Amino acid sequence: MNTSLTADQRTDLVLKEMTQDEKLKLVFGHFGSELAWKNLKMHPAAIPHSAGYVEGVPRLGIPAQFETDAGVGVATQGSGPTARERTSLPSGISTAASWNQKLAFKSGAMIGAEARASGFNVMLAGGVNLMREPRNGRNFEYAGEDPLLAGTIVAAQINGIQSNHVISTLKHYAVNSQETGRFTLNAKIDDASARMSDLLAMQIAIEKSDPGSVMCSYNRLNGVYACENDYLLNQVLKTDWGYRGYVMSDWGATHSTVAAANNGLDQESGWEFDASPYFSGALKEAVTNGAVPQARLDNMLKRILRTMFDKGLFDYPVPKDNAIDFAAHALVSQNGAEEGMVLLKNDANVLPLHKDLKKIAIIGSHADVGVLSGGGSSQVYPIGGNAVKGLEPAAWPGPVVYHPSSPLKTIQRYMPQAQISYDAGTDIKAATALAAQSDIVLVFATQWIGEANDAVSLSLPSNQDALIAAIAAANKKTVVVLETGGPVTMPWINQVASVLEAWYPGTSGGEAIARVLVGEVNPSGHLPVSFAASASQLPRPVLDGDPAKPDQRFDVSYHEGATIGYKWFDAKGLKPLFAFGHGLSYTKFAYSGFSSKYINNTVQVKFTVTNTGKVTGKDVPQVYVSPTAGKWEAPKRLVAWDKVELLPGESKSVSLNVDPRLLGMYDSKTKTWQINAAAYKVILARSAGDNDAVSTTVNLPASSLNVLGKKIK
Ligand code: BGC
């Protein structure tokens, strides 16, 4: 407990004192709730209805690990009488849509503070699986399709969480891109492609935040389960990237003792989900008979203990049920939701709502009482309870939960003169009649997805497309507000005046939506994913696997390699419905003085952004690079961006440096990034689909970089 020693020194001291049985306790995690289908009770020392618990060693002052999900706040496993009512951030994809690292940090700091105040010291947050599959049921937990954007935003959130002396867990490592068949599917991808996409997102997140732990995923990668995958754990993560934290398994993702231990797993989590308690007696025996070296067990302990020292678990023990400032936290969540919302379309400036509107119709999706959230282990139990009870599915990953934050009531508060009528949208005729006699219609549409529950298609479910089309036919001033987990198709897009993507907006989502609609907040979110015009544009028009056969073993061939999202659309010459990076504002921005130069082995860009409109707003200038010779996996890549707030008429100059790895191709044989000598087009754009973007050219000499991006030649 001598805090003047380093985490390494303190680890060595305590490790020397530990018996073999004590060591084994720290590599073996228990579930924090009951497991009805296995007839198992909750571990008595766990925080009730939490994700997990790992025993400590009181004799040596080693604290227990209390684990909670997840990325939008402190979750409750199951519901029951012990449900914790906590603040929920907007979904991860919304935070990514803010393109704002400071905001992501504040969001992480808030949920980390709630985790700590609730007695937890490990938060299973830091979901950074790239969106390869727009129907993936967990897209709302992640940060989109671009490795730089996703890795950077998730890193900021992890830094926020860990500022509370709580370990944050990057997940799900790796290529866990869909929920259908997640326990059995085999993701097939070559090394170079993975290192330039899914792995790059994780590498960037790790470099920028040093998460205490990394969670290996359920799926197999190139034939081997992720949690016993030597390539993923020992070679890439621990050797190439030099990661010093510990690897914990996802709940039910451990499949062996010897292979898992020797191939890099450091801690079995929620063993009750596995076929056997692999890291308990069996591991002890394996070490005794030499199948797992003692040094390997000690290395697991070193990683776990060092992380616990380093992140402050010894020096800042978690309090028991500390008070939480829910009002302040609701505001953090609200700011996040407001900045993550993306105004996709706004014809004739129907938004912000004009103050002289007399009759406003609000239709659909329980917009009178609340806002939707995503299902599964990350579900945060709402403060004040579920606003809409009894929806299907009732069973996990349900129940479907609405945070009690009413868009309608908040709009009414800002527009007291307007007469606002609500229609549930369940009867198209009634909804259309209301629409026809209103000055403007706000139709709310939802897509509920969750863990273990992919979207069946890219279409909005439950006949909502027909509802929207009918309403738009009855009233030209139709504004669609989407609460979706990820992209959806919009067959009615040319009929409606405006579309606002609000994602799952969290605890104060109703307020946030209303404040954007009435113009209290100028929208500044930009898409962190491409919205396909139809499923036929996707690398996999049909989702692989069969949700009805969860045990089926099958391959998913990621033949698109690193050509994900906008890179795929560019490479194939396809026009998406809405491009990656797209997002409108109530003001306008102009760019000037754009220049780029080669300096310090990388590209530096400079430009000035000016707000040429009448209201304050935030812009997201995006820099893409495209080689004029030599082949990349895609015509262009996002290499930098900024988020700039400007008063009307104000200008700011921006200077950005490019991570040189983003200018090269990864070479598996030499484990290097190779930058080709060539001219590169540098583009300053408003989205990946911006046809009016300005560009310059920069000449780069040939160079080689090591895995970490350091120049070697
Ligand atoms: C999920 C993880 C989660 C864990 C613990 C698993 O089902 O995949 O993301 O952290 O459960 O609840």
- Rg: 25 Å
Tell me about the biggest sheet?
7 strands, mixed
- How many extended strands? 31
Mean pLDDT: 97
Spatial strand order of the main sheet: 1-2-3-4-5-7-10
Q: Portion of residues in helices?
A: 10-25%
Give a structural overview.
With 713 residues, the protein is of the alpha/beta class. Helix content is 25%, strand content 21%. The chain is built from 17 helices and 31 strands. The strands form eight sheets. It has a seven-stranded mixed beta sheet. Strands 11-18-17-16-12-15 form a six-stranded mixed beta sheet, covered by helices on one side. Strands 9-8-6-19 form a four-stranded mixed beta sheet, with no helix packed on it. Strand 27 and strand 28 (672-675) form a beta hairpin. Helix 1 packs across helix 11 and helix 13 (407-414) packs parallel to helix 16 (509-518). The longest helix is centred in the first third of the chain and has 17 residues, at 101-117. It is globular and about 80 Å long. The mean pLDDT is 97.
Descriptive keywords:
single chain, 713 residues, alpha/beta, 7-stranded mixed beta sheet, 6-stranded mixed beta sheet, 31 strands, 25% helix, globular, binds beta-D-glucopyranose
Question: Strands, helices and their partners?
Answer:
Blueprint: H1 7-17, H2 20-26, E1 30-32, E2 50-54, E3 65-68, H3 92-98, H4 101-117, E4 122-123, H5 147-162, E5 167-173, E6 186-188, H6 191-195, H7 198-209, E7 213-216, E8 220-221, E9 224-225, H8 230-240, E10 246-249, H9 258-262, H10 281-288, H11 294-310, H12 326-340, E11 342-346, E12 359-363, E13 371-372, E14 402-403, H13 407-414, E15 419-423, H14 428-436, E16 440-447, H15 464-474, E17 478-484, E18 498-501, H16 509-518, E19 555-557, H17 566-572, E20 589-599, E21 602-611, E22 617-619, E23 622-627, E24 637-641, E25 644-646, E26 651-657, E27 665-667, E28 672-675, E29 678-685, E30 694-700, E31 703-705
Parallel strand pairs: 3-4, 4-5, 5-7, 6-8, 6-19, 7-10, 12-15, 12-16, 16-17, 17-18
Antiparallel strand pairs: 1-2, 2-3, 8-9, 11-18, 13-14, 20-21, 21-26, 22-25, 23-24, 23-29, 27-28, 28-31, 29-30
Bound molecules: beta-D-glucopyranose.
